[in-house]
């Protein structure tokens, strides 16, 4: 689905905010959450994706979806405890509401990392209990944690004691041969008793041996019925559905049974779906046409390049913007041309957009 399927009319303006790598207090919120656990805050979410949802991607998604809840890539507790905290935690104030996803299995380390996240201004701390990669298996976290609900419950309690923002969990339905509903029901039940109230449910089980992370997103069958049963069994929990959601109709159907939807690769391959869903939910106001969107992206790119960020990093999330429309291939070609990117000229974004316009004119039938 591309912009050709929706009517472009209005989006809010987002003013670029300088990244400082300074004290976390530099991040300020321009909104209020009177009820931080209200299901409405998770109505539309963009999933945490490693090597995808960096701060530049999240800024772009915010332009398209003013009220979506955005998630960082998974950041391990070790990276925060022993690495460059500013590099991992710095973000743009326009990204709010934005959640920090943590990877780890030690309650004390998770609590310390959660506290850092709150100090830096994140609106939610999310624990990864669903990633099936070799890296997390070696570290005994991610999807592996579903086999240790007591440890996860202890971690949830430790993080809740350390922060005031919501502590949430993203998980699968099962692991390897453990695909019966009772497995995930008992997992969620133990975390619910520990105080967790928000669950992002990837409606597939994870196969830790034999499948790559990409295959784990495609091969295990979707079982929406089990995810829906969780909502019935835990009516007081916020249940957000993840997996296989790639259109307005599929999301609209999910909203009938769940509190929210979480889009993953669909938001990366066809970002326009975020605009379409925001329009469907009535989240858009003001006026902003394509030219304004490109101007905002150009200003943001100019700022980032001036701070030393390579242009190729900034424009990478934009490649799918015109998916399904005339000029999409030219747009992708120009923004991924290594020679053009080497010049680090943010004007490339405007030139690429102009090429899209030329392609559209050429595609229109003659009168």
Essential attributes:
367 residues; TIM Barrel; Four Helix Bundle (Hemerythrin (Met), subunit A); 8-stranded parallel beta barrel; globular
What does this structure look like?
- With 367 residues, the protein is an alpha/beta fold.
- The protein has two domains: 39-281, TIM Barrel (Alpha-Beta Barrel); 290-363, Four Helix Bundle (Hemerythrin (Met), subunit A) (Up-down Bundle), CATH 1.20.120.
- 42% of the residues lie in helices and 11% in strands.
- The protein contains 17 helices and nine strands.
- It has helices spanning 55-64, 77-82, 85-89, 107-119, 134-138, 149-162, 181-193, 213-216, 224-233, 248-255, 265-269, 272-281, 290-306, 311-315, 328-335, 338-342, 347-363; strands spanning 44-46, 69-71, 75-76, 98-103, 124-129, 167-171, 198-202, 238-242, 260-263.
- The protein has an eight-stranded parallel beta barrel, surrounded by five helices.
- Helix 7 links the parallel strand 6 and strand 7 (198-202).
- Helix 6 packs parallel to helix 7.
- The radius of gyration is 20 Å and the shape is globular.
- Mean pLDDT is 88; it is low at 1-32.
The unreliable regions are: 1-32
Main sheet? Answer: 8 strands, parallel, barrel
Rough outline: globular
- Specify the number of helices: 17
- Largest beta sheet: strand ordering: 1-2-4-5-6-7-8-9
Give the radius of gyration. 20 Å
Determine the strand fraction and express it as a percent band.
Answer: 5-15%
Overall tally of structural domains: 2
The CATH homologous superfamily of the largest domain is termed Aldolase class I
Q: What is the CATH level 1 assignment of the largest domain?
A: Alpha Beta
Reading the helices and strands in chain order gives EHEEHHEHEHHEHEHHEHEHHHHHHH
Q: What is the third-level CATH name, the topology of the largest domain?
A: TIM Barrel
- How many E strands? 9
Spatial gap, N to C terminus = 28 Å
> Which structural class matches the secondary elements?
alpha/beta
> Average pLDDT across residues?
88
């Amino acid at each position: 689905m591309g912009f050709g399927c929706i009517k472009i009319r209005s989006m809010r303006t987002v003013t670029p905010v300088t990244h400082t790598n300074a004290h976390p207090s530099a991040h300020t919120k321009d909104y209020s959450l009177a009820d931080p656990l209200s299901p409405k805050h998770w109505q539309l979410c963009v999933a945490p994706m490693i090597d995808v949802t960096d701060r530049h991607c999240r800024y772009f998604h915010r332009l398209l979806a003013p009220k979506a809840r955005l998630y960082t890539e998974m950041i391990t507790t070790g990276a925060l405890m022993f690495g460059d905290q500013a590099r991992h935690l710095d973000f743009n104030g326009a990204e709010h509401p934005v959640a920090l996803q943590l990877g780890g299995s030690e309650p004390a380390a998770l609590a310390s990392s959660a506290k850092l996240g709150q100090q830096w201004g994140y609106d939610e701390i999310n624990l990864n209990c669903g990633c099936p990669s070799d890296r997390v298996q070696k570290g005994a976290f991610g999807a592996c944690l579903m086999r240790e609900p007591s440890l996860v419950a202890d971690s949830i309690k430790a993080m809740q004691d350390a922060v005031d923002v919501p502590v949430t969990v993203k998980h699968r339905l099962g692991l390897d041969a453990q695909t019966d509903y009772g497995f995930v029901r008992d997992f969620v039940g133990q975390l619910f008793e520990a105080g967790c109230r928000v669950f992002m449910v990837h409606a597939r089980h994870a196969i830790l041996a034999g499948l790559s992370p990409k295959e784990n997103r495609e091969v295990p069958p979707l079982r929406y019925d089990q995810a829906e049963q969780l909502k019935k069994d835990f009516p007081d929990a916020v249940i957000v559905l993840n997996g296989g959601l790639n259109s307005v109709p599929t999301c609209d159907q999910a909203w009938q049974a769940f509190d929210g939807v979480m889009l993953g690769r669909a938001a990366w391959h066809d970002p326009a779906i975020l605009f379409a869903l925001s329009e469907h939910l009535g989240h858009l106001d003001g006026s902003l046409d394509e030219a304004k969107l490109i101007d905002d992206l150009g200003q943001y790119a100019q700022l980032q390049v001036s701070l030393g960020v390579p242009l190729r990093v900034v424009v990478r999330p934009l490649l799918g913007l015109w998916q399904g429309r005339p000029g999409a291939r030219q747009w992708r070609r120009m923004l991924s041309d290594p020679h053009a990117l080497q010049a680090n000229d943010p004007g490339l974004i405007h030139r690429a957009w102009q090429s899209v316009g030329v392609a559209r004119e050429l595609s229109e039938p003659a009168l």
